[in-house]
Every structure is written in structure tokens, then in C-alpha cells.
Design goal:
- The complex is a heterodimer of chains A (264) and B (287).
- In chain A, 31% of the residues lie in helices and 29% in strands.
- With 264 residues, chain A is α/β, with parallel strands linked by helices.
- Chain A has one domain: Rossmann fold (3-Layer(aba) Sandwich), CATH 3.40.50.300.
- In chain A, helix 4 crosses helix 5 and helix 5 packs parallel to helix 6.
- The N and C termini of chain A lie far apart (57 Å).
- The mean pLDDT of chain A is 91.
- Chain B has one domain: ABC transporter involved in vitamin B12 uptake, BtuC.
- The model of chain B has no long low-confidence stretch (mean pLDDT 90).
- The termini of chain B are far apart.
- Chain B is built from 13 helices and no strands.
- Classes of the chains: A alpha/beta (264), B mainly alpha (287).
- Chains A and B meet through helix 2 of A and helix 8 and helix 9 of B.
Chain lengths: 264, 287
Amino acid sequence: MSRLEVGGLSFGYHGRAVGHDVSFALEAGEVMCLLGPNGGGKTTLFRTILGLLPALGGTVAIDGESLHGWSRARLARVLGYVPQAQLGLFPFTVREVVLMGRTAHIGPFATPSRRDVALAEATLGALGVAHLAARAYTEVSGGERQMTLVARALAQEPRVLVMDEPTASLDFGNQVRVLSRVRDLARRGIAVILSTHDPDQAFLCADRVALLHDGRLARLGPTAEVVTPAALRETYGVDVDIVTLTRDGREVRVCLPSLERGPR
Amino acid sequence: MPANVETVVLGVRGPRVLAALEVGAVLAAAGAAYQGLFRNPLVSPDILGVSSGAALGTVLGIWLSLGVVAIQALAFAVGLLAVVVVYLIGAALRRHDPILVLVLAGVVIGTLLGSCVSLIKYLADPYNQLPAITFWLLGSLASVTAGDVRAIVPAVLLGLLPLYLLRWRMNVMTLGEEEARALGVDTRRVRAAVVAGATLMTAAVVSISGVIGWIGLLIPHVARILVGPDFGRLLPASILLGAGYLLAVDTLARTAARIEIPLGVLTALLGAPFFVWVLARSRRGWT
């Protein structure tokens, strides 16, 4: 029985499918990276897994139990979501934003308890951003905002974490910082599925890769087997070499795209 | 207590003071709720068309010579209809800037409702009903009686209840529909309960005081500057500030000049420059 099991999922808007027959399973402690071109349906797939969008067919199950018909609160207790960071509207503190992750664990009319506050602060501490707690979410940097959203999702104490392009719009340093945390989360036994534009990130943090192309899972498997020059050519339409380097006695791979020559 | 003092304190000034506190508190609380719920710092009961809708309902009630409770119910029904239509227009035109679309939809619906009010004024009996309607529409606390103040207490308390109970959920709602749902909030229910509550109490105060603008827009901003955006603190802060502010403004309206300045004129005079200031400092996120 897998932690997250997606079976024959069709998804789309207003009955119009943008993706068909997507199936995969994810174990606890595993990181899966979803690659694919823009408009390929990555976000729509995530929204469907999260139950924010009704599935047009197929099933989503966690630990063998179908999520169909679950209340929002029950879903939020098992499925954490890290959306792309957007600017907040009102200046909540980072601590308050993280506390919002506790919402599904407290009653509809309740407010977070002292225990919830302690948990939120511990989560910020574990991510190495405890110093942000009292700052306004609207005034911290993009990387700090993304870290806050990761903390918020962790405060949900989820079994599965869905991250939609967690490194988009981050500078290089913050991208590396966020990806480092992704590995830590998996070590805690959370199943992590994240989307990204950058195949190099899959080499850095993913156990497995799914390639979503034209609404279908074109390839699925261990990172080194899926992210190949042929697959990237097929998905993105560009030529890429994959170079293997050795660091600390371990092999690491990186993508090296060939720049196309423009018309003379 | 001498009889004349008793009349002045309990019969004349007392109800007016209580009405100012009640109306100010409700408009500010409703404004705070709408701003959070619609994720829009530029909305308020008057901008969303709730006040105009409640005004139309009240005028209709006066025209049909209905009783107090029936007038309140009609004010609530039309006010609710107005905010629902405004919300649906905003939702349908999602491609545009959602903050502006909601405000513009509110302005359009408010204008439409205003012309309906004019139509009823045109049709009303010019000797009995028209003066009553016109006077009430000015937005004034001068003619509020102790009975009026008491009559709307149940609607006000009933309206405040969901706002208070859902105070933490209201914080999560400011993240937007999708994130709130992902965090476990049943957004449809929370929105329905809060809109119904805020509209109910707004309609109730509009039915006794007429349309008093600006308070629902401005006071929540001031409250947020003072206590931050957490709705558990924002709601009581808005209530206290709104009550205090309207009492101060009404006292000013009554005493500043030899004749009484209409309340709506004074709140606008004070509100407009303040609003420009809020807009100017809003570059770095809304207060």
C-alpha cells in the first residue's frame, strides 16, 4: 500500500479534460519531481490531487483510502500544499501565516491554542527561519515567503506534501535553500511531490521523475532513467547533454543545454 | 432627577448617543468583515451596495406602510441581494483586476438601486411619505428613538455572532479561495455565514439611520494599523473605534455650527482626505 496512489486520473476544467489517465504511486519518504512544459497541466494535476478541482475520472488515495467525499478539513490534515508564493494582502506576521496551517486541526469556531503556537514556532525553527516569526509576511523577501509557506504546510502535519514550483521566482541562493529542505522533509517520512521547470533540480532532490507532456505521463521512473537527452528533446524540444560529475565520491548529473543557433 | 433633565438625557440625547455607538460599531465591523472576506481593502457596506440595497428595502417598506420588523426584513433582503449580485459580477469578470471589478460592480449596482429609490420617491405620497423618506435618506441620527435602538439589537447581535465565531477562519479567508480550501476551510459556508451576518446587521442599522458612508471603509484600516490584521483583534477594535468615531462625529455635527450639519456630509469631509492618505501608503501592502 502506497502513501499516495493516483490511479487513472483525468483532470481539467468545466468537464474539459486537459490530462488523461495519469497513474503513479508515491511511498512515504519519497520525493517525486513533476517535469513538463508550461501549460502541460502540472498545476491542474496538483489541484485535482488536492481535491480543489473535481476529478473527471480516476481515483486519488492515501494509505489505501480513497479521498473521494472527504471534507476540506479532513483533506487538509493529510495533504499539505505549498502554492507559489504570492504577495500577501494584509500584513499578517510570519507566525500567524504558519499558524493558519493549523486551521484543519482546530474546530471551526476555535482559535489556535498555545500548543499550536509552539508547534508553529518549532516548525519555523526546524526550517532555520525562527527569526522571521514576528516579521510581517508582506515585508519579508521572496525566499523567506516561500519558506514561510513550507512551514505553513508542515504545520498541517501532512502525510503528503504537494509543492507547486516552489523555486519559481526565487533567486539562486533561495532555490538551493528550498531544495535542501525538500530532502529533509522526505527524511521525516513525508511523501513529497513537487513541480519544477528545471530538470537539474530533479537530479538534486528527486528519487523519481514524472514527465507530464500534453496531459499524459510520458515517462515515469527513477530520475537517472527518465531525465535523458531523448526525453528532454521530446518534452521541451531542445537539445541537452547530460553530464556526469563526481562530487564527494558520488556521481551527480547535470543538464547542459545546447543553445540553438539563430537564423543568419 | 427633574423632569426636564430626564426628558433631555433619557428621551432626547440618550437614544441618540446609543444609536451613534450602535450604528458606528456595526458599520465598522461589517466593513472589516467584507474587506477580509472579499480580500479587498477598498470595500465597505456602502461600496458593495449593501447600504443602498438596505436603503431601497427601507424606502419600499415606508412606501408600503409596513411595520418596523417587516421594514428590517425587507432592508436585509434587498441588501443581501445587492451584495450577492455584486459578488457574482466580480466572480464572473475574474480576468480583470479583481479588486477594481468588485468596487466598480458595487458602484454600478449602488447607482441602479439609487435610481429605484428615486422612482419610489416619485411615486410616494408627497405629504406623508416623501418627507419621511427624504429626511431618513439624508443619513441622520436626529430622529432616532429609544424604540428604534432597541428594535435592531437582536439583528445586530445575530449578525455579529458568525463574525465572532469564525474569527480564525476569517484570517485564512484573506489568503484567497484556493489556499483557504487547501488549509481545510469550507469557504462556501464561511462566506455565506459571514456575508449573511454582516449584511443583516448593516441592513438593521441602515433602517434606522439611513446611509452613513465612509465608516465601514475607513475604520477597519485604522483598526488594522493599531492591532494588526488578525480578525480576533480586528473585530473588537473596529467595533470600539467605529462606535467612538460616530459618536464623536455626531456630536460635532450637532454642536459645530448654529444649525445641525448633516452627518453624511461630515463623515465624507473627514473621510475623503483620510482615504487618500490610506491609498498613498498602501504601496507596501494594505494596512
